[in-house]
Model the fold of this input.
Amino acid sequence: MASRHALFSLLLGMLLAGSSPVAAPPHAAAAAGAPTPATSLPPFKVGFYGALTGNFASSGKDMLNGLTLFLKAINYTAGGRKVMVIVDDTAGDPNTALAKARKLIEQDRVDVLVGPTLANEGYAVRNYIDGAKAPSLFPVVSGDDITQRSRTPWIIRTGWTSSQPAHALGKWVFGQGKRRVAIIAYDYAFGWENVGGFQRTFEDAGGQVVQKIWTPQTTSDFAPYFPQLKKEVDGVVVAQSGGNAIRFLQQWQEFGLKGTIPLYGLAAITDEALLKSMGDEAVGLVTVLHWSAALQTPEAQAFVRKFMGEYKDAPGYRAEAGYVTGQVIAKALENTGGKPAGAQGIIAALRAVKIADAPRGPISFDEYGGIVENEYIRRVERVHGELQNTVIATLPNVSQFWTYDPKGFLSKPVYSREYPTCAHCQ
Amino acid sequence: MAPGRSRLLGAASSILLLVVLPILLPTYPVFVLTSVLIFAIFAMSLDVLIGYLGYTSFGHAAFFGLGAYAAVLSALRLGHGFWVNLLLGLAAVLLVAMAVGAIALRTSGLPFIMISLALAQALWGLAYRWARVTGGDNGLSVAMRPDVPFLGRLESSRAYYYFVLVVFAMAVAVLGMLVRSPFGLSWRGIRDSEIRMQVLGYHTWLHKYLAYITAAVFGGLAGILNATLTGFVSPETLAVSTSATAIFMVILGGPGTLVGPSLGAGVVVVMRQIVSSVTERWTLVLGIVYVATVMFMPGGLLGTIGRLTFGIGSDAPIPSGPAGAKKGGRTRSGS
Amino acid sequence: MQFWIVQTFNGVAYGMLLFLLSAGLSLILGMMSIANLAHGAFYLIASYVGYSVVRATSSFPLALGAGALTGLAIGFVTERVFMRRLLGRMHGQVLVSIGIAMIISDVALVVWQGDPVTVRPPALLSRSVNLWVMRFPAYRLFIIASGLLIAVALNLALRRTRLGAVIRASVDNQEMARAMGIDIEKVFMLTFGFGALLAGFAGVMGAPFLSVYPGLDWELLPLTLVVVIVGGIGSINGALVGSLILGLLDNYGRALFPDLFYFTLFVPMIVILAFRPAGLLPRA
Done:
């Protein structure tokens, strides 16, 4: 009988101990296959955590693919130092993201964190990262405040803020002669920040946003909203992503609205990951983003070719972000001879990185951890039978604050449902 | 060895393990263990409803999340300390449970399931939409670890773990007492046949109400402890997936035993952590585990392990196919 | 006025899609009282299969058949291997069906990856039709028509055919039915399979409307549960009424009270259930 108690206690103990280093081999990628390292230092550990399963599985996977593509190309070695990636799945859940971040930091002792995937995951881990002083790169999370009012010296973006491209589109749309627009957008932070950025620059230039329709995150049917759209406007701005984007454009056409009024898209609505499932309903849509797989520069096209050779599909912004993150890490290691000094050294080296030949163009970081990069106005066109985001205008070196003074920008509230106020809404 | 003795020994060795392990383990496993204890409380609270009262709820996350949000808001917007946050959180849960329970308990079986789901979904929707208060999709972050006399703020993983362990022990004691009390017995009576209980003169409605409120309050307690652990709350805590997780833990461990669901919580939490670090296909693996458990271990984990190690029976009705099947095929509970 | 017409039409279309989804669950959960929480997953995988068939053959009818067959096959396996052994054990059914749903959705993730995909309706139905002052997609009209057709067909089948009588008898009183020589196992298998077939059919019908993506199964499951239980357990007409109410509530709710979106859906549900716990049109 005593042995049975022992059995039970042993089982329990094993289960618990299973979460400690010995029993659970981390899901490490390709440290093997790298040639003999030049230095005798242990590998530089990159802890990747993102949504690899669940509703947002494609986002995390894209990021990981981009990162892996780059690291493979440099043979997992930079600055003479071997690089190793440990991969964890957050399933798109903030609690899990937090647990995984902890695991990577406390158990796997990674040197830098790469991830997560969603804004709410980002906010969930922010305090922990700050407290643990863990160098972190955010390739995809675009929640504005993470490098603004909630910034921490330990987080650097290699992606974007939601309002960054939106600022550019607001200016550009005004430049096209539009003066009154209606907006239909996702009703949560990602949507608010996109809309806020657009509205700010559009109205500062003299335009007017006369209507804002907010749609819930799970909207399978936009039909209830179409009749509400005001008719006397020069254009409609839509901020939707994921499956909503596909359905919106499909339904926009089904209800006979396509072509009746110019449509402008925010929130990466025609990202390559979605574009491949779209058809003629998307042709002609003008959007803005810091990346397009149709960008005609040598670096961009080289990356696109490599990516498609490996993964078949054209790379969207998340894949490109994973790739650039790899570039940034490699550059930091090169600049420090493979031996950045401790966490402080790592984060300083990362922030100092400037890359002129990232697929999306030149990038650098500001002192808030935000990124400075080009923004591209794109139009969906069918080329050789396939849809692509043709670049029709480039706005170089756009920062997260647009052309506003950072301190002035930060003194105002973050873009939300209520801010900027809809002063011209009727 | 007599069942009583082996049960005691089993309890003692588990307690020893829970107290001693964290000293030996590094901080991350301690974090996981803390999570296990918190979800064990959550699962036990649901067991009161599912296992003892025989009412299945698909929306237990409502109380978990409500407690968490109330406590976090109290900390963030009102600047209170942990103990006041705890109180306010539990108070919020109590009020809502009292209000909703009055309506929900007029039904049973499938309609009850729907109402419980509806409550959770309604709160979930509220958390999403009322962003000015709840932070919406982004959630709310706040550091709210308790301040304990002589020990100060329980910031470290280990310190907070022991705090949660104490709360867990108290929850086990209270719930254990309740289910063995006359209330608990009447709950089981209601589970087996409410009509009979009514005929015997019991105020079944009052007893059901008490069960519901008890389950709610302990569920809320778990939610508050979790928000304190992670320093974060988001609408996920109110989502169907959270309710579903609790149900798994209860059914996996064996309903109607309290210990079973705690075990189930441990298995689910730890399995998720381990499996998801080893393979991307962890959803597949977990799915297979759930199916296998039901098909091969009808009494849940505790039913099987319990019989193997302690020889303890359970307070649940004997799980077996034919005995559980009723004529109309319509059941209110039973596994 | 046009506003109301359009919203009503939309509500009915969406409601009909929900009915297509829930009809199967109404049979399984409503009539057989089997808690099959994998219903959403049946829908999802059939949706994906339909997507692949359309990509390969450009034939929507073929995709519909493939989807229905997928549902039937998976339903058949689920019933024979698992549910049959769990009759009367609701908790077991819940856990097993959720486990099966998890397996199905992960397999779908591996095969079709995570990006959302969509199915284009057949060219015939891709047009939009002029309905008073608003253009309305022909495909949605098709969904309304299909839903009505199926509702009528199911009603007829259950009330007027021998098979229907056999099914109703088996569900009402197993032992009596057995005593009368009815092969209960076969009846249950047929009914479950047919319910799953309906889910598969709905999966392909709904793909052009809702698109297909991971997580869709979990989004749809609560809605279908609400329809079946609020509409009335065991009643196809109940499911019809429930879906229409839900579809209309959803539409009006979004149009009128966008802020209270989930509230407008679930609070009426709670109220209805509080007063009519057996649903709106339960089987007598």
Observations:
- The longest strand of chain A covers residues 371-383.
- The two ends of chain A are 79 Å apart (CA to CA).
- The longest helix of chain A spans residues 317-335.
